[in-house]
Design brief:
about 210 residues; alpha/beta; Rossmann fold; 7-stranded mixed beta sheet; 6 helices; 7 strands; globular; binds zinc ion
Length: about 210
Amino acid sequence: MRITPNDRVLVVACHTDDEIACAGTVCRFAEIGATIHYYAASIVETLDAMVAERLAEIRESIAIMGCREERALWDSIPVRLFDMKRQTILDRLIELRERWQPTIVFGPSSFCFHQDHVVIHSELLRAFRTISVYGYETPWSDNGFKPSTFVTLSQGQLSKKIAVMEAYRSQSFRHYMIADAVSALSRLRGILCGSEYAEAFECIRDVV
Ligand SMILES: [Zn+2]
């Protein structure tokens, strides 16, 4: 992976908040002037009041990652039913590929067993055949994640990653939404690559 100002980054979140997994790296891209795009396949909730709350959270999250709202998009694919919407998802990813022309894509890894992540992972492979694709680490639903790429993070970038997590106040009840846990995993990944903090990725395809 290279991090350059000319990159056009696309973050593919299966559900809003999945971007926490790569937020530090995305902030690192943004800080040197790369263009950040964001797509979430499901904003999860269906009640109007909840949608409004979730949209506010998404907007806060993408702002931290340096993504302007006109470069973000979200759909309402029903949670745990992505498998029934495969072609819809693939069509959307292809549309975003043509519209935003990303140079690097972050999405779910092959180690994740969440049924929706499994679908998005396989459709990423179809939609982005000629583009670098990296799988992010989601320890709450990964089965033996094996990192092959490490991105070092500064203290400031780790703080932004935690701020992205904390933007999702409606999800704070989840057992993995804990700042200490995010920090500890980043510290562990840093130890494995000789840095204070890092994020780990599965290199799915690297195009140089
Ligand atoms: Zn998810």
